[in-house]
Q: What sequence folds into this?
């Protein structure tokens, strides 16, 4: 018997469920994980149309940070990081949680002031301050970095990384152990609503599953399903890509970001550098299959510019995914009371949905199963767009 079983359920598709979750990415699995953690005993089905994590869950940089330019997101991140940290103990899967830090290079005085203001007013009170480093300190701490013309640097020592594949596996395994059925290669085609209430979902091929609750967590494809009941949320895809080099000596613990330009590099514990230029990939597409050559060239330049050994490094692989961007770069969680009863959303993570998924899943689980709107969930309700209560978030990397 393997220590960790394959979390995918291969039995017959049930005819009914108490809750159907659409999408087997980090966010759909986070919701399943949250329901399992709550001890929810009803029948929960997760439908993923491809393999688990086939959307963006395995196409990201797998980093976590406390530091956002809004009180709401910084507070949410603090809780989310605590949840990430506890996942290995709860699930039995090592997600390689590691506090390697984030290092921001800032080039303009006005942005250095913003970092200092948020540090004083938000991050330090949350217990996760950033520390300003002189450029001489940076040189002695990270001798392999080449940063010209930077004004200053800020390090967030409590930020870090995990392994995205193992986070997906951990959440799915935990959900499976608690009886949740996670099914792959099954596409949800539409939501069925009668008399203002969710009554089921129809799968591609025609099978209908009776249910009174459906969670749409289909990433950038969420509106394709919501539209089947005449609803849309304000999300749009923004293609982002990443490359991985061959492994080298481990010299760079933090993720290093050029703040104003958005380029970043880091190193995995295995020694591979990861890098992404913020230039050359942006486009509103859900099609990840093409790797833009322009982006690859720009990212090679970033490696050369930021690392003394940059021009000697060999690229091993690269891929694209997509941020799922909302107007305030913050996720959409919960439901609008004007929607059909039983319809919930969990999407729009705008580039930070891996690290937030286990916590938002926990909050949504409480909302669905117990009707509790946690104070941490409230700012993210979909109603904020029509009520003009947007979260002022602008610290999006890449
Ligand atoms: C280059 C890059 C770097 C990133 N770096 C980070 C980072 O360092 N830290 C971080 O926290 N986040 C990061 N992100 C963001 C993170 O990857 C996403 O926020 C997260 O993966 C979103 O998860 P999701 O479940 O909402 O969407 P997805 O992972 O895209 O999952 C949606 C799933 O729904 C499925 N689906 C769609 N339609 C249907 C249907 N009709 N029926 C059934 N299934 C369906 C899809 O197949 C897909 O698997 C990064 C993203 C990119 C692209």
A:
């Amino acid at each position: 018997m393997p220590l960790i079983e394959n979390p995918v359920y291969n039995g017959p598709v049930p005819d009914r469920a108490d809750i159907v979750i659409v999408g087997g990415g980090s966010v759909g699995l986070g919701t399943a994980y949250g329901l399992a953690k709550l001890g929810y005993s009803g029948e929960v089905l997760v439908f993923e149309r491809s393999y688990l994590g086939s959307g963006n869950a395995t196409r990201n940089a797998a980093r976590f940070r406390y530091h956002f330019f809004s009180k709401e997101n910084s507070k949410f991140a603090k809780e989310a990081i605590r949840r990430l940290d506890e996942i290995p103990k709860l699930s039995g899967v090592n997600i390689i949680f590691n506090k390697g830090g984030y290092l921001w290079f800032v080039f303009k005085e006005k942005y250095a002031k913003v970092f200092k203001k948020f540090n004083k007013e938000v991050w330090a009170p949350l217990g996760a301050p950033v520390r300003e480093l002189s450029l001489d300190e940076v040189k002695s701490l990270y001798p392999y970095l080449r940063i010209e013309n930077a004004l200053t640097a800020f390090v967030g020592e409590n930020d870090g990384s995990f392994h995205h594949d193992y986070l997906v596996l951990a959440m799915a395994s935990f959900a499976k152990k608690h009886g949740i059925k996670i099914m792959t290669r099954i596409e949800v085609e539409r939501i069925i609503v009668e008399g203002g209430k969710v009554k089921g979902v129809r799968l591609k091929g025609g099978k209908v599953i009776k249910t009174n609750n459906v969670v749409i967590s289909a990433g950038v494809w969420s509106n394709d399903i919501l539209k089947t009941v005449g609803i849309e949320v304000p999300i749009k895809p923004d293609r982002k890509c990443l490359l991985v080099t061959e492994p080298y000596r481990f010299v760079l613990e933090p993720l290093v970001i050029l703040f104003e330009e958005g380029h970043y590099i880091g190193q995995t514990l295995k020694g591979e550098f990861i890098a992404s230029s913020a230039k050359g990939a942006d486009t509103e597409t859900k099609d990840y299959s093409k790797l833009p050559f322009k982006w690859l060239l720009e990212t090679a330049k970033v490696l050369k510019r930021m690392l003394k050994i940059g021009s000697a490094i060999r690229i091993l692989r690269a891929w694209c995914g997509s941020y799922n961007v909302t107007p305030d770069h913050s996720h959409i969680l919960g439901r609008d009371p004007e929607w059909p009863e039983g319809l919930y959303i969990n999407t729009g993570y705008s580039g930070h949905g891996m690290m937030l998924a286990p916590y938002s899943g926990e909050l949504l689980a409480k909302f669905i199963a117990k009707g509790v709107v946690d104070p941490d969930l409230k700012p993210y309700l979909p109603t904020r767009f029509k009520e003009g209560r947007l979260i002022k978030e602008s610290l999006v990397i890449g």
User: Anything to note?
Assistant: Residues 1-99+161-234+326-398 form a domain with the FAD/NAD(P)-binding domain fold (CATH 3.50.50.60). The longest strand covers residues 236-247.
